[in-house]
Design goal:
The chain is globular. Helices cover 41% and strands 14% of the residues. It contains six helices and four strands, in the order βαβααβααβα. It has 152 residues and is α/β, with parallel strands linked by helices. It has one domain: Rossmann fold. α1 links the parallel β1 and β2. A four-stranded parallel β-sheet has the order 2-1-3-4. Bound molecules: 4-nitrophenyl phosphate. The site of 4-nitrophenyl phosphate has 11 residues, from loops.
């Protein structure tokens, strides 16, 4: 059975596109489907931020074909796990959940990493170094998720 994972941030142009691309690059597409979305609709239909595309490319991950979309309540039914990049994203998604089963699918991405800071910071208003930092945080979490998915 295919495990379906959704990565969520605010705009779906900086962090969650990286998370989608990084996790998909580590798993087999026949066993794991990864998508991403934003809790806000500011950038619907747009490709990822140029800085996210550049940092991903540097590490051999192509995210340039992605398009931003907004998180919808149907995502609770369509995905097995929903990873929020920060606590604000987490609260926004939980706020849309209709029952405990839906809420139980949502967790912070960095909760997978024991000794890490718990949020992937929003890099939108900063420089390229922020995107590098975000890439490394997400990459570490995705290594752990990949190992977990092998045991499903
Ligand atoms: P993201 O970053 O949530 O990682 O995609 C942001 C992108 C756009 C905005 C904020 C954060 N914005 O305000 O437009």
């Amino acid at each position: 059975m295919k495990t379906k994972v959704l990565m969520v941030c605010l705009g779906n142009i900086c962090r969650s596109p990286l998370a989608e691309g990084i996790l998909q690059s580590k798993v087999h597409p026949d066993t794991v489907f990864v998508d991403s979305a934003g809790t806000a609709g500011y950038h619907i239909g747009e490709p990822p931020d140029k800085r996210s595309i550049a940092v991903a490319k540097k590490y051999g991950v192509d995210i340039s074909g992605q398009k931003s979309r907004k998180f919808t309540v149907s995502d609770f039914d369509n995905f097995d796990v929903i990873y929020a990049m920060d606590k604000s994203n987490y609260a926004n998604i939980i706020g849309l959940s209709k029952n405990k089963e839906q809420a139980a699918k949502v967790c912070l991405l960095l909760s997978e990493v024991d000794d890490f800071e718990k949020e992937v910071p929003d890099p939108y208003y900063g420089g390229i170094n922020g995107f590098e930092h975000v890439y490394r945080l997400i990459d570490t979490a995705c290594d752990i998720i990949t190992e977990k998915l092998k045991m499903v």
